[in-house]
Amino acid sequence: MVLLPVAQSTGGAGQAESGIAWQKGDVDAAFAAAKTANKPVFLYWGAVWCPPCNQVKATIFNREDFIERSRYFIPVYIDGDSPGAQQLGSRFKVSGYPTMILFSADGREITRLPGEVDAEQYMRLLTMGMNSARPVKDTLAAALSSDSASTARPAGARLSPEDWRMLAYYSWDTDEQQLMSKDKVASTLERLARSCPPEQRDTAARLDLRALAAAATTKGAKPHDDKLASERITRVLSDSRMAREDFDLVTNYAGEIAGYVTPPKSRQREELAKVWSTALARLAADPTLSTADRLTAVQAQVALARLDAPKTAGSDAPKSALPDALIKEVREQVSRADRETSDPYARQSVISAAAELLTEAGLLDESDTLLKAELKRSHSPYYFMLGLASNAKKRGDKVAALDWYEKAYAAADGPATRLQWGASYVNALIELAPQDSARIEKATLSVIGDIEATPATFYGRSQRSLDRIGKKLVAWNKDQQHGASLTRIRAQMASVCAKLPSGDPARTSCDQVLGGRKDMKA
Length: 522
Description:
Blueprint: H1 27-37, E1 41-46, H2 51-61, H3 64-69, E2 74-79, H4 85-92, E3 99-103, E4 109-113, H5 119-131, H6 136-144, H7 161-168, H8 185-195, H9 201-216, H10 227-238, H11 240-245, H12 247-252, H13 254-261, H14 267-284, H15 291-305, H16 324-340, H17 344-360, H18 364-374, H19 381-395, H20 398-411, H21 415-432, H22 437-450, H23 460-476, H24 483-497, H25 505-511
Parallel strand pairs: 1-2
Antiparallel strand pairs: 1-3, 3-4
């Protein structure tokens, strides 16, 4: 193994990502080539429309140092809409876009790289991963192991600073329960934060923030008064260097963490939100961050301002208005982002973040204007149509919402994407127009008509899209008012399933999409 120096900045994005020799066909051949050449494998899993994927392309894959570094590994590119992609997704345990995994030359998974960190952090982590022959799973086991009889040193002391850093920056969001089940992530990260050697203050702080983010976003998490956690968070936020180091956690989980460690409408919450907002203002003005990340920092300020705002019954929009200064900041940041971003990859990410920011700020009309203008420029306009549908739904305009959902599905491209967009359209119809049996049946039959009768269709995200439709349809017919429509839908689905090989697991998955015959009642 060739040890590589930790990457240094080379002046950013000087070349196109086309400079990378991506392997897009035979994945097994790519792994075989890696073994022969004794090179690691870098696997990228993404989609054309996905904003974070486009962010990675605009900020990492086009960097000269990444392109240069790619000569030392076998780069594998799996687009979620390519033939057999969803089956490969199940094989490699990847789901969310983007997921990036580093494998050793012999095919062992070393680590999952976080796409949300900035490019220079990413390059350092990539280099450390390439220089390490130790899978992060083994590193985690060593960090959590109890003291052994053969040594007086704690298990944590036997790990290098790089080992701890790889744990802190592991892509826990795309782990897909490879290291542990979801219900153990928060407690495990908390334990790691406590075990991290005291001289590695920055790493311990990141593990702590990660643990709090995991706990705050766990289903059923409730606000409580955790003064010690608030103090630790305040120390990070008050240190501009540390806040910048962990900007992804500071911006992406501001509302969740602040709302979790402080009681509602308390002085503690008010004080923490004030410190947090100050740190976010610095990040929003930081020219070393990407435009999308700076927009996310402003959106986090909005989330903090909304923490204790009362909700309107049946609506996502809070009653209380945001401070005028924050509204002004939202508009200025969005205008700057729109004006200064020309790269098509960057725009897919930036306009998505900008429109979401306007929506969260309650500026739905301005969000619509931005999204509609982008339909003419985007390589994946159907993604932004879903944003327009969501805005219409927030207004209570069901007709407009369904019209945009339908347009988005009609424009969607790629088998997995069309299934996902079709599922969104059908689910929206069932939610917003449950009485319109004819339209729901027509939309569902159209989605089934898109399905390729191949085993590869019934895996990963595609299978989950079909399952979503099936569950919604069965629930829609719980009062037996739509039995005739459901019978016709099931008949078409059965014709697709019949084309699959008998005994193939995909055949079983297909047969179960609509609940099986036991739920079929006319």
